[in-house]
Amino acid sequence: LKPTSVSTAPIAGQKPGTSGLRKKVAEFKKENYLNNFVQAAFDAIKASGTDISKGSLVIGGDGRYFNPEAIQILIQMGVANGVRRFWIGQDGLLSTPAVSAIIREGGPRWQKAFGAFILTASHNPGGPTEDFGIKYNCEHGEPAPERMTDEIYANTTTIKSYKICKEFPNIDIGAAGHSKIMSDDGSAEVNIEVIDSTEAHVKLLKSIFDFSAIRGLLDRPDFSMVYDAMHGVNGPYVKKVFCDILGQDLSVTLNCVPKDDFNGGHADPNLTYAKELVAVMGLNRKGEKIDMGGRPIPSFGAAADGDGDRNMILGTQFFVSPSDSLAVIVANADTIPFFRTQGGLKGVARSMPTSGAVDLVAKDLNYSLFETPTGWKYFGNLMDSKELFDGAEYTPFICGEESFGTGSDHIREKDGLWAVLAWLSILAHANTNSLSDTLVTVEDIVKAHWAKYGRNYYSRWDFENMNATKANAMMDKMRAETDANTGKTVGKYSIEKSDDFVYVDPVDGSVAKKQGMRFLMTDGSRIIFRLSGTAGSGATVRMYIEQYEPTKIDMVASEALADLIRVALDLSDLKGFLGTEEPTVIT
Ligand code: VG1
Ligand code: CO
């Protein structure tokens, strides 16, 4: 267990983005690249007052290329830095929500975990020529807050050496079990437990939902579903829940075997990348119906991303936008036992670019609503706050983002499987209460929701792999023009306010600036521009468009939004800066 100190020098560009550090595998494999970052993280964890020799450290990932090597390096560096207990997901696999659940749970033989390293670049492609990533989660299972990621970054710019136990044996992570490694003189020991990847998370989900009601729905002869894990980490979780527990056959599962390159695919659950599922559900990449030649179409379709925290929900030839999905789940939260038994939902939060559909529900049902910057790390403080809710010990919370992320306070990450089970609960409930024998569908539920609340037409355009200098120049120009743009009339819209979104955390007062250029129109429509903080290389420009219609709910989204999209492209001079107006992905 004797640590060696290896001298090193700072490596540029190790600033964690929206969700951890993501770079090409080749970059991560460069000498000291991973080691520097991990040492910087351990130093920041210790500086935050955590005694890492006391609790346990969880390590797992989405199974992408370079995961196994990275896990051994993390163990060797963890031991050298004083960690004495580890929990490692079997085969190195742990979904992001599962990690959060494990940290929160603690183990019977183990002291509670103080944190976790998650080895994932989430929805970014994997494989030798693609992306790798790493992020740190803290003691409540939440992603490291900005003050910590800032400190990690600062440490990477001054690092001189890192600690590693080079002689520490390679740990076999292929089988569940316990290993104890003693120091030569017998004075110290390290305990490593390789754990079943699904157990803690699935146990938690079982305590949240009414599984027998869901099974009642799944067993209906007129109901069928497909869950596409896109060869990410979610496959084993899908099999466990739907086949082992809910008794469905394997036809429910699609691409449920994890692969280190996601089988060459892009494990991002949207209409463009979840091609196979989208076709099975009778849609094209624009969300339009395709001719299925009479072939049967499942009633329900779902997809997950590489690390299992995202979800896409589809009905038969029907796409549910993530912002609408959030609003529908919030509106029906009392169908989920977890909320019903805790005295009902109280808090709702969405990221700024997410549509205001959920705001209408929160207002109607008297839930507190919060608007945060993009990224799940801003939700944790709200969920854990007692002050915001008159000292209440516990506040049931639902959060969501337009980027196919939904979840609740059962953990501190978004949770793809949770969202799917939430939808199935809503469907089960609607069908149990229905007077007719005909199946109440996903489409029925969403349309009834629009009829009640109106519809927030919404679209996000992504321009991937853009020139970073030009993308920044475009943002700077809009930033410089906020005053000039405020009050201006553009097409049939009037800009009530243009600004760069600033968030002041209502709990600790911390301020997050430069979170997105906004054009807020007098009729409530919005245009937003942001640069992605998860791109492994180059720049990704995101353009978000939203327009509310109280009664006209049957338009095609692209047509309803056409005028506003034109205005957005002109206001930003997108073509002038980026040389194109053709997005890579529309969601
Ligand atoms: C994107 C999404 C954001 C999400 C983040 C992490 O960030 O827009 O909503 O929280 O990815 O998701 P950005 O900065 O690229 O827009 V995951 O599933 O990739 O960890
Ligand atoms: Co993800």
List the helices and strands and how they pair.
Blueprint: E1 4-7, E2 21-24, H1 25-29, H2 33-47, E3 56-61, H3 67-80, E4 85-93, H4 96-105, E5 113-119, E6 131-137, H5 146-156, E7 161-164, E8 177-182, E9 189-195, H6 199-208, H7 211-218, E10 225-228, H8 235-245, E11 253-254, H9 275-280, E12 300-303, E13 312-315, E14 318-320, H10 322-331, H11 337-340, E15 347-351, H12 357-365, E16 368-372, H13 379-384, E17 397-401, E18 405-408, H14 416-433, H15 442-453, E19 455-466, H16 468-480, H17 482-485, E20 489-490, E21 493-500, E22 503-504, E23 511-512, E24 517-521, E25 526-531, E26 539-549, H18 557-560, H19 562-572, H20 574-578, E27 585-586
Protein name: UDP-Glucose-Pyrophosphorylase/Phosphoglucomutase
Catalytic activity: alpha-D-glucose 1-phosphate = alpha-D-glucose 6-phosphate
GO molecular function: magnesium ion binding; phosphoglucomutase activity; UTP:glucose-1-phosphate uridylyltransferase activity
What characterizes the major β-sheet? 7 strands, mixed
Major sheet: order of its strands?
2-6-5-3-4-9-8
Q: Separation of termini?
A: 50 Å
Rg, please? 24 Å
Catalytic activity: alpha-D-glucose 1-phosphate = alpha-D-glucose 6-phosphate
Protein name: UDP-Glucose-Pyrophosphorylase/Phosphoglucomutase
Domain Alpha-D-phosphohexomutase alpha/beta/alpha: 14-162, 200-314, 324-439
Cofactor: Mg(2+)
Task: Please characterize this protein's 3D structure.
The protein is an alpha/beta fold and 587 residues long. It folds into three domains: 4-196, 3-Layer(aba) Sandwich (Alpha-D-Glucose-1,6-Bisphosphate, Chain A, domain 3), CATH 3.40.120; 201-453, Alpha-D-Glucose-1,6-Bisphosphate, subunit A, domain 3 (Alpha-D-Glucose-1,6-Bisphosphate, Chain A, domain 3, 3-Layer(aba) Sandwich), CATH 3.40.120.10; 455-586, 2-Layer Sandwich (TATA-Binding Protein). It is 32% helix and 24% strand. A seven-stranded mixed β-sheet has the order 2-6-5-3-4-9-8, sandwiched between helices. It has a seven-stranded antiparallel β-sheet with strand order 20-21-24-25-26-19-27. A hairpin with an 8-residue loop joins strand 12 (300-303) and strand 13 (312-315). Helix 2 crosses helix 5, helix 4 crosses helix 6 and helix 7 (211-218) crosses helix 14 (416-433). The chain is globular, with a radius of gyration of 24 Å.
